[in-house]
């Protein structure tokens, strides 16, 4: 698919890896100012994309910074060995991105973005359920803490439609009042390939813009808006119906030898999606299991990064 397709349907590309592939495919060359590094895992791979200058930022449509994407097809399944491998990969990426900002007593605020009433958008709130929270214990029951546990708090602020308050306004209020040093936000993303649903995790040091993947962008949550570093963790849970339809038409043409015409494809898809205001997102029927599985993996990775050296079996004592 070319850039005109995404512009035609106002589709935002959440994953830096996909944005890189789309632009590189459109231009037929590498993108100046974008650096890539790939690390193989036993069951997948980790791709680190660094956007190094303003020109690359403009071309990619992503803020300058580092984007780490963990890709594992078996991430969809409840395989303890794979879950542990990916949790460790999440922890390694987080540790690298947080190292410049984190001290032993730094207060970290975990934010679970999204709507807990809508399953595809509930990854953030569900992940927060499994995060060990310790800030209150540092003040009221320090004897209950294991040595080396820093103050951590967590909240799922909901969405504008249920609270009437912009999410960033809620987070700003918390940051100003509890004086935290670092924010980690978790959110569901939109992918441009069905293969990435529940199989990819993106971690970046650039913050996040809630709702952008479904065409409803809110004010960004980043260093500029909060005044402190923000690490973002996202997992694709939906894909645009327009993308699926266009890919299906292209595949049909490839298999039958027919000539693919982008304009005809666009007009046909527009006609079908006109009943939905021109926009429709799709999620798999097993999304409940994908959210639960991914939330546990991400929360364990966060816990490993924030509480290094603390036994995994101890985390449960500090969760809700």
SSE order and pairing:
Elements (H helix, E strand, L loop, with lengths): L2 H6 L7 H12 L6 E7 L4 E7 L2 H7 L4 E7 L8 H19 L9 E5 L10 H7 L5 H6 L11 E4 L4 H4 L3 H12 L3 E10 L8 E5 L18 H4 L3 E11 H16 L5 H12 L7 E2 L4 H20 L14
Parallel strand pairs: 4-5, 4-6, 6-8
Antiparallel strand pairs: 1-2, 2-3, 3-7, 7-8, 8-9
Protein name: Germination protease
Enzyme class: hydrolase
Family: Belongs to the peptidase A25 family.
How would you characterize this protein structure?
The chain is of the alpha/beta class. It has a single domain, classed as HybD-like (Rossmann fold). The chain is built from twelve helices and nine strands. Strands 1, 2, 3, 4, 5, 6, 7, 8 and 9 form a nine-stranded mixed sheet that branches. α4 packs across α12 and α10 crosses α11. The longest helix has 20 residues. The chain is globular and about 70 Å long. The mean pLDDT is 90.
């Amino acid at each position: 698919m070319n850039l005109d397709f995404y512009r035609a349907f106002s589709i935002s590309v959440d994953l830096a890896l996909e944005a890189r592939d789309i632009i590189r495919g459109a231009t037929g060359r590498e993108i100046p100012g974008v650096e890539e590094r790939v690390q193989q895992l036993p069951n997948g791979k980790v791709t680190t994309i660094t956007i190094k200058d303003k020109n690359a930022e403009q071309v990619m449509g992503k803020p300058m910074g580092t984007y780490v994407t963990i890709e594992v097809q078996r991430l969809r399944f409840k395989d303890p060995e794979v879950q542990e491998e990916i949790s460790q990969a999440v922890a390694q990426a987080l540790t690298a991105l947080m190292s410049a900002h984190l001290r032993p007593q730094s207060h970290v605020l975990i934010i679970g973005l999204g709507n807990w009433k809508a399953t595809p958008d509930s990854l953030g709130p569900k992940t927060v359920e499994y995060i060990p929270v310790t800030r209150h214990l540092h003040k009221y029951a320090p004897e209950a803490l294991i040595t080396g546990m820093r103050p951590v708090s967590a909240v799922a602020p909901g969405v504008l439609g249920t609270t009437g308050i912009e999410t960033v306004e809620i987070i700003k209020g918390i940051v100003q009042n509890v004086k935290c040093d670092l924010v980690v936000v978790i959110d569901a993303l939109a992918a441009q390939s069905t293969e990435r649903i529940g199989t990819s995790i993106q971690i970046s040091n650039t913050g996040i813009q809630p709702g952008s993947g479904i065409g409803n962008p809110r004010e960004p949550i980043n260093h500029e808006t909060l005044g402190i570093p923000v690490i973002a963790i996202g997992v694709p849970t939906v894909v645009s119906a327009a993308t699926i339809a266009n890919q299906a038409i292209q595949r049909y043409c490839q298999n039958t030898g027919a000539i693919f015409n982008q304009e005809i494809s666009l007009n046909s898809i527009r006609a079908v999606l006109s009943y939905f205001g021109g926009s429709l997102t799709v999620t798999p029927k097993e999304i409940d299991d994908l959210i639960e599985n991914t939330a546990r993996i991400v929360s364990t990775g966060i816990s490993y990064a924030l509480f290094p050296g603390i036994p995994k079996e101890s985390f449960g004592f500090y969760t809700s």
